[in-house]
Amino acid sequence: MNEQHSAKPHITVSDMTMAYGDFIIQQNLNFTVNHGDIFIIMGGSGCGKSTLLKCLIGLKEPSAGAVSFDGEDFWGSDDDDRLTMKRKFGTLFQSGALWSSMTLAENIALPLSLYTTLGEKDIAELCSYKLSLVGLAGFDDYYPSEISGGMNKRAGLARAMALDPEILFFDEPSAGLDPISAKLLDDLILELRDSLKTTIVIVTHELASMFSIGDNSVFLDAATHTQLTTGNPVELRDTSPIPDVRNFLLRGEPNELSDKGKAL
Amino acid sequence: MLVFSGDWVISAKRPEIDELLGEFGTEGAAISFNSDNLNDWDSALLIALCAIHQQAKQYQLSVNLDGLPDGARGLLHLALAVEEREGARKSARHESLITRLGNATLDIWGSCVEITAFIGELVLSFGRLIKGKANYRKSDLVVVIQEAGAEALPIVGLISFLIGMIFAFVGIFQLKAFGAGIYTADLVAVAMVREMAPIMTAIIMAGRTGAAYAAQIGTMKVNEEIDALTTLGINPIDFLALPRVIALIIMMPLLTMYSSLIGILGGLAVGMSMLDVSVMQYLVETQSALSLSTLFGGLFKAVVYGSLIGIAGCLQGLNCGNNAMAVGQATTNAVVMGIVMIVVSAAVLTVIYINIGI
After folding, report:
1. pLDDT tens for residues A183-234?
2. In sequence order, what DSSP letters do the residues of A19-82 get, joined into one string?
3. Which of B227, B230, B244, B318 is the best residue to mutate to test the A interface, defined by the most A CB atoms within 10 Å of its own CB?
């Protein structure tokens, strides 16, 4: 799948170590996310996937190493430059994380009113359009508490897309969604990548969606506190020489190898 | 051979496990079971079996499970499948008094550093506000001003009226003995305007608004809403703390003035019923007791208390942990910290006022 897109590096992580105090979560992380890739961050529970995401979106500073976007060092830059970089990404948090005191439209309007010079009418139109993209047309004036969890998540995605970001980060997008909604979300992610050329980074352990949308991935290991491998999830499942990685991707059922692959 | 009979359910009376274990000590024989007469069983049986198994392991007795019901055997295998992890059980830590005292002192020092850092951040935030670079929503500011202002009027009014009455009662009983009952008006006026109105309003607002701020911001933190702000490059202090602190700094002096007025009315009500003076006399006496410097002294205190309540509420909210219990803790801390800071600053301000002669 990689070959379809220009293989220009978009996000580069080099020799990164993440730690809380003396406790090292992950070390020696090295991987590259290319423009237009759908990149999966995977690994067992508690291996530091979410922490890695926090380092990428600027919520937690890595204790060593660097993250760069289009070759520009993220954590080494001053606050203003970092802010400029931050505006190029959108993040969908696990719970949606909509601001509960604002309506859906106000949630989407906030980044627009802060970072664009658009008038109120344009912003309102944009909000309605973004909501209709995620299947929530007409819900502009609802508060997050008035809609379901799945809708909250989609509204969160609409907010993440408000500024037409170059990179979208997803934290466990299909957690808490039924299989059909999860599939629809996967389709939406593919559509966004294909039509807007957005680079997409997803933290997930949903095998089905990994195999159907992932171009590239990094596998984090909780025991050794480092990455075990990188590569296309389907190829890793079928050909990875590392037993732990294959085991994870096959849910510990090696016999169903080829059948499962087809079913997915 | 152990024979289980009757019902082994958790709600029914059954033999103590210790008694069971006492029966076989170090005999060295194999243990087997007979459950032919066993009717109903649930976890109670399994608890006994696990204890027996452990005892048997300790004395290295062999256990034969054949006599047990199939289900119980399966569950026992499941329970014993994974060995207890070394050190997984938390042992009660005994810290010496000195260790605990030291840790508590370090905690206090840590929170002093936290407060100082937060005040610094707020000052920077005010700087951005003046330069017009602070990101916050004007509509949020209006809402928090309403919450911290108009909506607090009934409770502040009630408490102030009662405080005014109490002061008047105390004053009348003491001053009447000297035939100076009319000076109750002075007492109530000066006490309310200078001390009681600011501090009572502040304590009400710490419990009402400071706690609300901590709970609101803390819940936003749990919901990742603060992270969502940060990733968009919006400073949570500008967006959340600044409007709230401003609201309290604006509304506290107004509430204090209202509180003083209602307190004086409370004193007047008691004075009318217990003193032999007219309304006019009482009010003239009140007016003569008050000076502008007394009033402004009180209002300045209100501003200080207001900003302290805001700082305590927002700081605790932003430092809140990521679970429901932490939100409760943050709310409690906000109120306690708010009231402690109010009382300490009240003492400091009173000393300063006396020294500069207000």
Report:
1. 888 888 888 888 888 899 999 888 888 888 888 999 888 888 888 888 888 8
2. EETTEEEEEEEEEEEETT-EEEEEESTTSSHHHHHHHHHTSS--SEEEEEETTEESTTS-HHHH
3. B227
- CA B292 distance to own-chain centroid: 37
Task: Supply angle C-alpha A107, A113, A119, rounded to 5.
Answer: 120
Write down the number of H helices and E strands in chain B: 15, 3
Q: Are B225 and A86 inside 8 Å of each other by CB?
A: no
B224: helix, strand or coil: coil
Partners of B37 in the β-ladder: B5
Minimum distance, in Å, between the CA of residue B227 and any CA atom of chain A: 7
Query: Where in chain A are the domains?
Result: 2-88+165-263, 92-164
pLDDT of residue B206: 95
**C-alpha dihedral sign at A49, A55, A60, A62:** positive
Contact B309, B209 (CB under 8 A): yes
User: Is the pLDDT assigned to residue B318 strictly greater than 50?
Assistant: yes
Residue A39, chain B, CB below 8 Å: the answer is no
Q: How far is the alpha carbon of B223 from chain A, nearest alpha carbon, in Å?
A: 6
- Region of residue B60 (left: phi > 0; alpha: psi -120 to 50; beta: else): left
Please name the residue of chain B whose CA is at the shortest distance from the CA of residue A55.
B231
Sign of CA dihedral A229, A231, A237, A241: negative
Q: Alpha-carbon torsion B295, B297, B300, B306, what sign?
A: negative
- The answer to whether A55 and A40 are in contact (CB under 8 A) is no
Q: Which residues sit opposite A29 in a β-bridge?
A: A16
A98–B231 C-beta distance less than 8 A: no
Architecture of domain A2-88+165-263: 3-Layer(aba) Sandwich (3.40)
Q: Nearest CB to B231: which of A57, A95, A110? A: A57
Within 8 A of B140 by CB-CB distance, chain A residues are 101
Residues 6 or more apart in contact with residue B88 via CB below 8 angstroms: none
Chain A residues in contact with B137 by the CB 8 A cut-off are 110
Which among A135, A156, A141 is positioned nearest to A105, based on CA atoms?
A141
pLDDT digits (tens, 9 = 90+) for A34-65: 998 899 998 888 888 888 898 888 888 888 88
d(CA B2, CA B18): 14
Contact at CB, A89 and B140, closer than 8 angstroms:
no
Interface test with A, best of B136, B223, B318 (most A CBs within 10 A): B223
What is the value of ipTM here, to two decimals?
0.80
